[in-house]
Amino acid sequence: MGDVLKQYINGEWKLSESGNTREILNPATGEVIAEVTEGIRADVINAVAGAKAAFYENGWMDTSAVERARLLFKLADVLESRAEEFYKLETTNNGKPIRESSVDVSDACACLRYYAGFTTKPHGVTYDVPDDMQSLVVREPIGVCGMIVPWNYPLLMAIWKIAPAIAAGNTVVFKPSEITPLTAIKLFEIIDEIGFPKGVINLVLGDGPNVGDELARNRDVEKIAFTGGTSTGRSIMKAATSNIKKISLELGGKSPNIVFEDADFETAVDYALFAIFCNQGQVCSAGSRLLLQESIYDKFIERLVERAKKIKVGSGFDESTEMGPLISQNHMNKVLSYIEIGKKEGAKLVCGGNRITEGTFGKGYFVEPTIFVDTLPDMRIVQEEIFGPVLVVQKFKDEKEAIKLANDSCYGLAAGVFSNDIAKAHRVIRKLRAGITWINTYHPTYNEAPWGGYKQSGIGRELGTYGYEEYTEVKQININLDVKPTGWFAK
Ligand code: NDP
To answer: What residues are paired with 96 via a beta bridge?
Structure first.
């Protein structure tokens, strides 16, 4: 193993003041693949001071949009030229199959380019107001933005946050998940090399309760952007009250995927599998609840199980692998415990349900694609986010019942509807309480369109114009076109 990997604070690679390190594992083999410095609150405080100085004193807040665009385009170009290095590292640290990690890298480049282009486009508005007045609205950067991301899309989630924040002219202190920091560290090699001014983008490493909490709490951080679990989102909201930070939270989901009897059968089966088993089910927007109309229920499940049993689980580096390991032993145990809960609750297990341990599988954290049918709406496996390859199937009679069951959740992130009756599909989508929806497809995500949820799935949106606006303050400027005294008070 090489040297201890460092944090990037105020333009320098730094070991933590803690003097401690953390081992990073490959979830497919359980092997240690790197050792990183273990950050603490003091490192965050230093990084925030650097980001604050870069913004207010060293000129970043006055950097032109053209220059910010140039740097983001350059970052995309270099990342793209080193794509293979990044996706192989992502698969080593996260376990996801290469065919997924390579898409993550190309999506990251596309997102950087989207926001690079966005930087120089018009952002303000003018209003026709009464009196001889010109009223303008301009968008300005917020200042120091803290960012905390999870382990399921380590590189892509970093870019989804860093790109719009930099496009809008902010400075950044970024924290990856403590278990998947490797592609972020590599990204900062490029950030360092292409000449972002010191302090503009900082990397801190370490755990959520210390490093993450300090970012959320620190009074010089003016905005916190978070992706992760809903309960962590709640802690971040509380910490962010310290200075009434702006917050954007992309949290959990238990998203319904509704299939009507008039849907294209094979397409709907195919997407039902993709909706839940892509990225090992570790996707906030996963279609983890499949709602089937009763007339096709049995036939659909039969075909679904037949196909799910053929999913090839294995090392992400094997090109034929369709599903890799879960991210960690802890997380695998959580998923397996939900499978036990499902059985105890009386749901019928029709596919999978076990850890895979034969041969070398036993060293990693592999779980079979798992399907429960005959579930009831109040079961824990139907209501709670499992965040793994576990699908729960629900049965409905008609449109009205489908909508009721779909909305019976504290979450509201995503939803899908499969039907060849486009009017019905659209009618149903309009009634679903979810921020990201699909008709006759599941999962496609676009840099142009807003990403985020209703209810306990979060606050604010990422991507598109909406994502950019989350990193701006709005200022009105009223210009008097008839400059003379008011006459309000006697002379
Ligand atoms: P967390 O929400 O705990 O982790 C996400 C990020 O938040 C990590 O960087 C983590 O740090 C950090 N964090 C943890 N606690 C705090 C805190 N108190 N203050 C600030 N930051 C904190 O997700 P987990 O990885 O633990 O997964 C738990 C569950 O959350 C999953 O089972 C799943 O249900 C859900 N989840 C949802 C995701 C989504 O995209 N919607 C993504 C990931 C998880 P660190 O881990 O380094 O300690």
So the answer is: none
The predicted pLDDT at position 2 comes to 80
Q: Is the dihedral of CA 182, 183, 187, 193 positive or negative?
A: positive
Closest CA to 280 of 387, 362, 179: 387
pLDDT digits (tens, 9 = 90+) for 357-408: 999 899 999 999 999 999 999 999 999 999 999 999 999 999 999 999 999 9
Per the document, the length of the chain is 491
> 393, 294 in Cβ contact below 8 A?
no
* Residue 40 CB partners (closer than 8 Å, separation 6+): 16, 17, 18, 206, 210, 211
Going from N- to C-terminal start, the domains of the chain cover 7-251+457-477, 256-439
> What pLDDT does residue 122 have?
85
Q: What is the pLDDT of residues 202-223, one digit of tens each?
A: 999 999 999 999 999 999 999 9
Pocket test for ligand 1, best of 7, 160, 177 (most atoms within 8 A of CB): 177
**pLDDT value for 491:** 86
* Catalytic residue list: 250, 284
Q: Which fold has domain 256-439?
A: Aldehyde Dehydrogenase; Chain A, domain 2 (3.40.309)
Exposed e or buried b per residue across 177-189, where buried means at least 16 C-beta atoms within 10 angstroms of its C-beta: bbbbbbbbbbbbe
In tens, the pLDDT along 118-175 reads 999 988 999 999 989 999 999 999 999 999 999 999 999 999 999 999 999 999 999 9
Ligand 1 atom 9: residue of nearest CA: 177
Which pLDDT tens digit goes with each residue over 411-423?
A: 999 999 999 999 9
Expressed in angstroms and rounded, the spacing between residue 229 Cα and the centre of ligand 1 is: 5
C-alpha of residue 306 to centroid of ligand 1, in Å: 34
Q: What share of the chain is helix, strand, coil (3-state, %, to 5)?
A: 40, 20, 35
Fold of 7-251+457-477: Aldehyde Dehydrogenase; Chain A, domain 1 (3.40.605)
Give this prediction's pTM. 0.97
Q: How far is the CA of 70 from the centre of ligand 1 (A)?
A: 33
Instruction: State the first-to-last Cα distance of the chain, in angstroms, to the nearest integer.
Output: 80
Q: Are 38 and 21 in contact (CB under 8 A)?
A: yes
CA–CA separation, 342 vs 123, rounded Å?
50
Q: Widest CA span of the chain, in angstroms?
A: 93
